[in-house]
Amino acid sequence: xxxxxxQPGTPTGTTFTATYHAAGDPNGDPPYMRRMKWIAHPGSRxxxxxxxxxxxxxxxxxLRGPDACAADSRLGAGSATGKFGGRVSSPRMDLFNNTDExxxxxxxxxxxxxxxxxxxxxxxxxxxxxxxxxxxxxAGCPVDNALQLGSHMVLDTxxxxxxxxxxxxxxxxxxxxxxxxxxxxWADGSHETLPIKMPxxxxxxxxxxxxxxxxPSRVKVExxxxxxxxxxxxxxxxxxxxxxVGRRLLRxxxxxxxxxxxxxxxxxxxxxxxxxxxxxxxxTKFRAVRR
Length: 291
Hints:
- By secondary structure, the chain is mainly β.
- It is built from one helix and 25 strands.
- The strands form five sheets. Strands 1, 2, 3, 5, 6, 7, 8, 9, 10, 11, 15 and 16 form a twelve-stranded antiparallel β-sheet that branches.
């Protein structure tokens, strides 16, 4: 498993590749997989409010597949390798977001199969992958006929308003890597946990310059005025910037702007202060004048 960044506290994507075989025999078939659990390094964080949500039922997904989910709820895609009825094939897999869960849609023959992974309070992610097809219900399979031999999945880096769907831990240990893990439960009763070490950087990236602008730059005292604040870096809009205007706290949207309507009672210069993770602090001013 690899990440798209080594920086702490940063939105990340991941690439996961696994092959499964019999214990002690790389050429032998593994048992059927009953459950798999991704164990995140402490401080890793999922935020399922960042992407859209796929609210489709299992029955809808079984008939329509990925089209049953909103496009903005898509998290990534990949493929599984397995034996279906004794024949090896590699069906496509699509991954979508829902509240506190990931929805895996597998392009099996006839109808699509569905597997829902639950995100725990400890930020672990647990799937009970289907071992039969067609598989619509998450209750399990009455007869095992789909043996998983491997999987490959790419989770995209998803950011909205400065927030990431999956964010790396806030610090990098002295060892220079984050310790994650995969835990497996197999049909033969065996259970194992495999460590996964992902490199991290102990040196934080230099903060990027941040520019703050306000329009209008001059308002009338004791009159309600609308101020539009814009945050940019190297000419590009920066979402999720926190802007302090007096006692008001604003946050820029996806276009890098925030709007506030307020009454200024004191003439003179007034300062706006902005901050955002990974960026230098910035200020700008507007003037309030008497009528």
